[in-house]
Design goal:
Protein name: Transcription initiation factor IIB family protein
Number of strands: 0
Structural class: mainly alpha
Organism: Natronorubrum bangense
InterPro entries: Cyclin-like_sf, TFIIB_cyclin
Oligomer: single chain
Distance between the termini: 29 Å
Pfam families: TFIIB
Helix content: 55-70%
Largest sheet: none
Radius of gyration: 12 Å
CATH superfamily: Cyclin-like
Number of domains: 1
GO molecular function: TBP-class protein binding; translation initiation factor activity
Shape: globular
CATH class: Mainly Alpha
CATH topology: Cyclin A, domain 1
Number of helices: 7
Length: about 100
């Protein structure tokens, strides 16, 4: 659970997350999980926020059983697939979740 202050401070990014989630037709659970993952690890550098947002959407979709490919999320979020690949497992681990071991 994140504070209202966090949601207000990062409102622009959360709106972007919702826009991309809508584009991907993600479930409500996937969106909620992605939002929590993003707010748990918002980078200070604005240049990194879009990549973390995309990785959060990818990981959130996996957790909710609404999985999308890294490439699909990367295209929707306008980041490289490598940006997602290099971040999503760490996001899950930092949230206390165990990433799948495919």
């Amino acid at each position: 659970m994140h504070s209202a202050r966090d949601r207000i401070e990062y409102e622009q990014w959360l709106e972007e997350l919702e826009t991309i989630a809508e584009r991907l037709e993600l479930s409500t659970d996937a969106r909620s999980c992605a939002m929590d993952l993003f707010l748990a690890d918002v980078p200070e550098d604005d240049r990194s926020k879009q990549a973390v947002l995309a990785a959060s959407l990818y990981a959130g979709s996996l957790v909710a059983g609404d999985g999308r490919t890294q490439g699909t999320v990367a295209d929707a979020a306008d980041v490289s697939r490598l940006s997602i690949q290099s971040r999503w497992k760490d996001l899950l681990e930092q949230a206390g979740l165990e990433p799948p071991r495919w």
